[in-house]
Amino acid sequence: MFQWKSGGMGMDSSDIVDKVFEKATKGDRLITNPDVLKLDYIPNKILYRDIQTEKIASVLSPVLNLVKPSNLFIYGKTGTGKTMVTKFVMNALENKKKDNKTVISYINSRTSGTIYRVLSDIAYTLKIKVPFTGLSVSEVQKRIFEYLKENEIKLLLVLDEVDFLVNSPLKKDGGNDLLYELTRYGSYANSNSFISIIGISNDIKFKDYLESRVYSSLHDEEVFFPPYSVEELKDILKERASIAFIGNAITEDVINLIAARSGGEHGDARRAVDLLRVAAELAERENAKKIEIRHVQEASKNMEQDKVSEAISSLPIQEKLVMLTIASLKEAENTGHIYIKYLNTCENLGIQPLTQRRVSAIINELDMLGLISAPVINRGRYGRSKKISLALDRNTTVKIIKEDEVLKNLSI
Predict the structure, then answer these.
(1) pTM recorded for the entire structure
(2) 186 and 115, same structural domain?
(3) Residue range of the domain that includes 64
């Protein structure tokens, strides 16, 4: 077999790969249950979310008696357990429901990307055949409604990232219209069929984007998920570690370090568990007997490079728009100037703009995250004002923001 050698120096590439694989297969495994460290893992015991779990279960429980539950909206920052708890409750309902006419449909609005895809994804859940393209939105909606009515289906519709429907170009494409029609389904169908909406959003101001007709027809209840504290993260990490690793693979000092870093910065349990996972994988690669603080430090350093990208990528669309507006500035500007440019950007995209007060609040949040700089400048008799500028590399920031499908074609 022909083997390529780089300039006659060093090992063959196949030898390098074989050496790595042999080391991996012969080394002691620290991670015995890697699924526990995955972002989509749903534990049987969800710590520090009893209140939220009980509230969600209570609101949705009427469906077990074939009664329509109230619409429910769930809010909280990324990594606070919203989707995990919702899926946990939905799985329990699936096991408890009394008939096959109660259907649970989980849709991620951002992943679906268009109103047509949202509806076709709902149709797929219901086993309704809808072509990938070719029908009008109204026709797909009609087919879904007719199927629900004829088969007396009780639909629990989970819309994750629901704010994307009404605060992106999907708004222009009929996001508000879709929500309105879904909430008004009861007037179309009979009492033996209904749709209950469970919306999940990272943006606690989600309802600010709703048209008044949609807002008034929701009749919803709300659940809020706060960020985790350092002590709560410690217990969550201990619980995951006890299932994921062999005995004595990790010390309390390591757990404390990860919890302190994560709790002090963001209170995001998913990022804390991810740091634990990367540290464990680094320890395994060098055949270490246990995960040590140096592994956490190295993992944190490696993840730091992706931290900015993740922080920006996880922002709601409006916060990305504000950041993109700030990135377009040639020099630091005050809030008023930024708001004018922000309004122009929203108009170009067909997105409903927020009030100047709300944009000012977003600027404060971005400043706290370290993504922008917004010091207050004393202008003497002219008073004080903020001089706002980007705290990160402009080209990198713009590139990350434009990875969002909604903003990829926007020029600044």
Answers:
(1) 0.71
(2) yes
(3) 50-225
Identify the bridge partners of residue 225 per DSSP, sorted by sequence position: 76
User: What CATH number has the domain bearing residue 291?
Assistant: 1.10.8.60
Report residue 342 as tokens: 């922000």
Does residue 44 form part of some domain?
Answer: no
Residue 165 CA to residue 114 CA, distance in Å, equals: 8
Low-confidence spans in the chain with pLDDT less than 70: 1-11, 13-28, 168-173, 265, 305-306, 378-384, 412
Q: What pLDDT was estimated at residue 48?
A: 97
Q: CA-CA distance, 145 to 152, in Å (whole number)?
A: 10
Angle at 221 between CA 219 and CA 222, to 5 degrees: 140
Residue 33 lies in a domain: no
Which amino acid does the sequence have at 126? L
The tens digit of pLDDT for each residue in 65-102 reads: 999 999 999 999 889 999 999 999 999 999 999 888 99
Q: Output the domain CATH number for residue 109.
A: 3.40.50.300
Looking at the structure, do residues 349 and 321 belong to the same domain, yes or no? yes
pLDDT per residue as tens digits for the range 129-153: 988 888 999 999 999 999 999 999 9
Residue found under tokens 């690669």: 285
H or E segment to which residue 375 belongs = none
Smallest CA-to-CA distance from 366 within 342, 349, 345 is with: 342
Residue type, 382: Y
Residue 9 within a domain: no
Q: Distance between the two ends of the chain, CA-based, in angstroms?
A: 54
* Whole-angstrom Cα Rg for the chain: 25
**What pLDDT score was predicted for residue 6?**
44
Claim to verify: residue 131 and residue 167 sit in the same structural domain:
yes
Q: Which residue has the tokens 């903003």?
A: 407
Instruction: Please name the helix (run of DSSP H) or strand (run of DSSP E) that holds residue 106, with its range, or none.
Output: strand 102-108
